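[Q] Does anyone have a clean C-alpha cell version of this?
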Amino acid sequence: MSKNALIIIDMLNDFIRPEGALYCGPAAEAIVPFIARRLKHYRQTGQSVIFLQDSHQPDDPEFDKFPRHCVAGSWGARIIDELTPEPGETVIAKTRYSGFFNTNLAEILRKLGPELVEVVGVCTSICVMDTVGGLANRDYRIVVPGQGVADFDQEFHQFALKRMQQLYGAQIQ
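[A] Here you go.
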C-alpha cells in the first residue's frame, strides 16, 4: 500500500455547527460523515493524518474581513467531536488561509514523505484552495474528494474545485 497523508482542514465548531460564529451552512455539516469515514480508513491503515486548526488571537486582523471566529482556546476553535484527534496525530494551529503560512506543515510533510496527499475540509475557496496551492508548489500529488469539501458559497466552491484541478493538478474525485 502506498504511504499517503490526509489533511483535514478547519473542521471546527465555528464553521461546522449552526451556532458557530462563521457557520458554513448545511453543506459543511453534510461532509462530516464522509470525512469521518476517510479518517477511519487512514487510521486503520496506519497512514498519516494531519489536522489544520484555524486559531486566532482576539485582535486578529482577519476579523476586519470576517466575523470574529476560532479564537484560540475557545469552543469555536475546537475540532468537532466526530473527528477528535487521537494521541499522536498531528494538529497544527494556523492563523491564515494556507496551512503552510507560519507553520511547520512543510517540515512535517517532508519527514512523512507521502506519495499522495488527500485534502478535505472547509472552506473550499479559501483555506482548502490555499493549502492545496502550497502542496502543488511543493510538487505533491493531491486528491480533493468533492464529497469532503464545502464552502459558504456554492459558486466559489465550484470555481475552487475547477481551479485546483486545472492550475494545481489536483485530482478532484
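[Q] Thanks! Anything notable?
[A] The first strand starts at residue 4 and ends at 9.
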